Amino acid sequence: MEVLVITWNYPPRRGGIENLIGSLCAELEKKHSVHVITAHASSAVPGEKNVFRAPLPGLIPFALYALWRGALLLLRNPHVRVVLGGSALVAPLVVLIARPFRRRAIVLTHGLDVVFHRGLYQLLCVSWLKSCDRVVANSTHTAELVKAKRVTADRLIVIPPGVEPERFSVPSDELANRRRWNIEDKKIILFVGRLARRKGVKEFIENSLGDIVDEVPQALFLIAGANPSESLTHRDDVVSELSEAITRHRLDDHVRLLGSISDDELIALYQVCDVVVLPVLDTKDDVEGFGIVALEAAAAAKPVVATRVGGIADAVEDGKNGVLVEPGDYNLMSQTISALLKDREANMSLGGHGRCRVVKEFSWRYIGARYEDVFESATRRAS
To answer: pLDDT in tens for each of the 383 residues of the chain?
Structure first.
């Protein structure tokens, strides 16, 4: 089978959707021919194959280029049976490209791309989801959001993000890594992700971290992530807000802002940390569709403490590979993290269960096969 992917979010841009689409394409390419039409890149991306980038930056140049290049590709490649969209943002492009050529239109949804509140966006993008042959939601929570947009149940499938467990278990010199970051005697709490406000990092610092430090004086909070400068929806300078909160609460010796880091550095951080935290806020206009960081933590056999928000409950099994707390219950979050920093046996038990679950249910080989089933089902229905 040949697949045409239309996506605004694609590496080398960094983020959860970018990682998902890039990894999904890499998995599909093992068995299928994959063509990708995506946004402009400021410089050439080495090693790209069958990736077509808009010649100019911006959404409108991307949309016009996608329509032209997509139609051309389908004319020249009759074996392309599926046009796959990376998010609800590109749903109209996917339908407009697929329909005239009698190809199947399938779009991935992630949460925020479904609920983003601008009326024009809802009209021009989200409303097209009900015209797709299939809509893939990344969690049961996102699926409910999609249903509210009048997508029928027979066209809606839940497939979570995948992860490559072996990448997070590559042997490394933990002592050398700890020396590298000067954290030899620290108990590490790790946050990973773009610093959108909904992530709740500032609120965690203000309401939980001080209590944790009182209980575990060697606790150190590492924040791996930067302001979402390439996001279409998030423009806040959260890094400055975090710096102000850290100073105001006198936690300068217990927090480090690492900024954007490489994939190898990220894996090393997962391996040296003691617990991963996802203190996501419960907001109306922004949602956490899944929480792929929880899968990465589990792949590295590390427990996760997270709020029960959005699709996070699909990623974190409460009491098995981590602990879920209700939004705003910072007292329980502080107590839980402090206990895991002290109790190595409980820490390892949660991490070990998470690792087994990821290998069994979330490896890209398994997730890729689920996408193949969706493609085959959609094309059979068309015939």
So the answer is: 899 999 999 998 888 899 999 999 999 999 999 999 999 988 878 888 899 999 999 999 999 999 999 999 999 999 999 999 999 999 999 999 999 999 999 999 999 999 998 889 999 999 999 999 999 999 999 999 999 999 999 999 999 999 999 999 877 778 888 888 889 899 999 999 988 889 999 999 999 999 999 999 999 999 999 887 555 555 678 899 999 999 999 999 999 999 989 888 999 999 999 999 999 999 877 888 998 999 999 999 999 999 999 999 999 999 999 999 999 999 999 999 999 999 999 999 999 999 999 999 999 999 999 999 999 999 985 54
Same domain, 154 and 273: no
pTM for the model stands at 0.91
Domain containing 44 equals 2-162+363-382
Q: Are residues 140 and 180 in the same domain?
A: no
How many domains are contained in the chain? 2
- As a whole number of angstroms, the distance between CA 368 and CA 31 comes to 10
Torsion region of 88: left, alpha or beta (phi above 0 gives left; psi -120 to 50 gives alpha):
alpha
Beta carbons within 10 angstroms of residue 260's beta carbon = 13
Q: What is the CATH number of the domain that holds 7?
A: 3.40.50.2000
Residue 344, burial from CB neighbour count under 10 angstroms (0-12, 13-18, 19+): exposed
